[in-house]
């Protein structure tokens, strides 16, 4: 994601809520690649840890499914700056139900 001026908080850093939205999208994207055609998923729990301030104008988050049962899927995410440095991590839980 390209960091734009309207996403910067009063302290001059990328707003924390933006990090959470991008991390949820990355994890949800990982889930969606594994859903059947008659399934849908929703985030029911999310946790994010900021490891350091994001410097630069890019944030890249990579989500993956780490465990799944029939209805409950657990995911993780790692977020990186433009240089590839780890700046944040998180986990989420998704519920998977019929469409």
Describe this protein with a few key phrases.
single chain; Thiol Ester Dehydrase, Chain A; 1 helix; 17% helix
What does this protein look like?
The chain has one helix and four strands. It has a four-stranded antiparallel sheet, with helices on one face. The model has no long low-confidence stretch (mean pLDDT 96). The chain is elongated and about 45 Å long. The chain has a single domain, classed as Roll (Thiol Ester Dehydrase, Chain A). It is an alpha+beta fold and 99 residues long. The N and C termini lie far apart (30 Å). A hairpin with a 3-residue loop joins strand 2 (60-68) and strand 3. Helices cover 17% and strands 43% of the residues.
Strand order of the largest sheet: 1-4-3-2
CATH class value: Alpha Beta
Q: Please indicate the percent range of residues in DSSP E strands (runs of 2 or more).
A: 35-45%
Rg from Cα:
14 Å
Strand count: 4
**Low-pLDDT segments, ≥5 res:** none
Number of helices: 1
CATH architecture: Roll
Question: Major sheet: size, sense and barrel closure?
Answer: 4 strands, antiparallel
| CATH level-four homologous superfamily name | Hotdog Thioesterase
Give a brief rundown of this model.
This protein has one helix at residues 16-32; strands at residues 39-50, 60-68, 72-80, 86-98. By secondary structure, it is α+β, with helices and mostly antiparallel strands.
Note the topology.
Elements: H1 16-32, E1 39-50, E2 60-68, E3 72-80, E4 86-98
Antiparallel strand pairs: 1-4, 2-3, 3-4
